[in-house]
Every structure is written in C-alpha cells, then in structure tokens.
Amino acid sequence: MTSNNSNPLLILANIGIIALWGLPQVFEIPFTANILALVTCILYVACHQSLALREEQAMAASGDGDTGGVVETMRKEDAMQFPLVGSVALFSLYCAFKYLDKDWVNFLIGIYFSAVGALAVTASLAPVVATIVRPSSVDEKLKVEKKYSYSHSLPEFLIGPSPFELSIDLNFSRVVAFVLSVLFSVYYFQTRYWAANNILGISFCLQGIERFSIGSYKIGAILLIGLFFYDIFWVFGTDVMVTVAKSLDGPIKILFPRSLSIDEVTGKHNDLSLLGLGDIVIPGFFIALMLRFDAENAKIPPTPTDMHASFPKPYFHSCLVGYILGLATTLFIMIYFNHAQPALLYLVPACLGSTLLCGAVRGEFKAMFAYSEEDEEEEAKEGSMDTKKEEVAKKED
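and the corresponding structure tokens:
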C-alpha cells in the first residue's frame, strides 16, 4: 500500500538506478560520480523497501498470517562470528584461484551466481510485472499456494531443522518474471557483460537489505566493528582480498567503466573500477535499521507497509550522509595513493559516528540502544545468558 502523497526522492532514486545502469554503456560518466550516485540510489530504495520488515514482524508477533519465520534476524553470536566465517570463505576462494584452474573455478561460481541471481532478479522484477498485468484479477485466478513438510535426519546446519518446510506461492506475474530472469541469467553466464553483472549485483543489494534485519543497534555495531578489522587485515595485511576481487568473475561486485574503450581481442571493457557488494549491503543493513528506528520513533503504524509515508528521518539521513562521505573519502584516498582501500575502514566510523552524533544531539542514546527487532524469545534467552554470566562473575569475585 502507498500513501496518497508519493515520496519524490524514492521515485527519483528508482529512476536513478535505471539511468545510472544504462547511461554508462553509451556515455562516459566519471566513475567516482557514478559510484556515489548509484550506490546512494540503491541504498535509498532498499532501505525504504525494508520498511516491510516492520509489518512482517508485527504479524509474526501477533500470530496473524503466515509470516512467522520469514523475517531473517541476526543474533549477537552471528555478528561476532561473521568476520571469522567471512575470512574462511575468502581464504578458501583465494586458495581455489591459486591452486586450481581459474577458468574452472569461475565456471562453477558462475553457475551458482546465475541460479541465485535468477531468483534475486525475479523478486525485484515481479512487482514491476504485476503493475503491467491488467487486469490484476489475472494474478488472482492463476495463483498457486502450497506448503510441503518433509522430515529428515540430516544435520541441522545443512538444510535446517526437521521437518523441512517448503512453501510455494506463485502467480502469473511471478512466473513471467521468473522466465525473464532465467533467460537473463543465461545471457549473463554466456557473456559476462559488465552491465549484466550489475543487474544481478543491484538485485542482490536490493533483496538483501530489504529482507534481512541485523536485530538491534548493538548487534549492528558489533557486526560493523568486526568487519572493520576484517577489511583492514585482508586488504592491507595480505593480497588475499584484492586477488579474489580481481580474479572472481561474478556479481559479487558492481562494475563502473572508466571509459568506453573496448579490448579488440576480448571484446570487453578493459578499464573497470569495482565496488564489492559487501561494502554496500553490510552498511545498508545498518542504515535500513536506522530508517525503521525513525519510523518507530515517529509512531508510524507497522501495518500496512507504506514506503512513501512522510515522517522525520534524522537517523536515516545522518547515517546515509555519513556513508556517502565515507565512500567519497575511500575513493579520494584510493585515487590519491593509487592503491586499493578497505572501504569499511572509512564506512564503519562514518555510519557509527553519524548515528552516535545524531543520538547525542537529540538526547536519544537510550532509545537508540534499546531499539530491537529481535524475536522476544531470543531476547529473553540472551538476557538470561547475560544474567548467568554476571552471577558467575560475582561468584568468582
């Protein structure tokens, strides 16, 4: 549902994503301006789409509807382990490129990302197709909803707890979007064209930020600080991050052409800058949380979701501006020293610092740190664990 008054910035950001994807294919745009503008548009759209999480969480908490279990929320333990898990994955890719055939590694990774990318593009494209399909009753008539449950004895970390539940929710618009997305993924897999790569990368960013919650400000801070040191170590301490980024031919990054010149042998652009999706999505989780905190502060009803609702957004705007300044600083340092930079080195202090400053000015530190989107049972569990730790510490004293 949308309000009677549309948010012009949200509309402009959607148009900006399309324009900044298409125009660089025919016009030379300064890559620094392209990066800053495109990423800003992606974050603005994705964060506003994430307002739907408030509705899903409210419905799950009330037991109304079938949204229970849909909202993915990060736990404190997940945030603390994330840099370690990321390091293992990154170093594994580095070893694969170093000791195995690079083309075969990229071939297998390409298959995986093409398949997952088709689902991400489907999720992004389906609402667009739905607005085109007329009448809307076509979607209702061709709608299929089914649920399946299967018991299994496999380890929980592989496919989740038993029974394994599978839900199918299809309509005409989603089927059309899926078919188009599969055809597009096949095109990407065969050509590896940079603009096709960017469609998958942008879809990953939009869907990731829209559907995932980092739970609370505290968990977000733990995640960002951990990845702050992770990024510094793997970029400045080793050649692992740079090697993987340059070797991996897949939509884990958004590419920005520095010029329109094309290599005569390969037929591809030979001068591309890149920005890893992690440098967009990870801070994006945090910025989106700040927007939902603003909505909570403004007493905006969680249901129905209204992305165009007008309300004060001091934390969102301050965090987004901080991110843009941090990214601009990253680009300046990279160009000045002509050396790859760990973007989170600048983005993490910018995001945390801007929100802390906003909280200090508004006198809302307590409310900001108390805001939580964690499941009530999970919060109670963490609270009891903290209490036990305090009791053990007292006994030791």
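(Above: one complete record from the training split.) The first strand starts at residue 72 and ends at 73.
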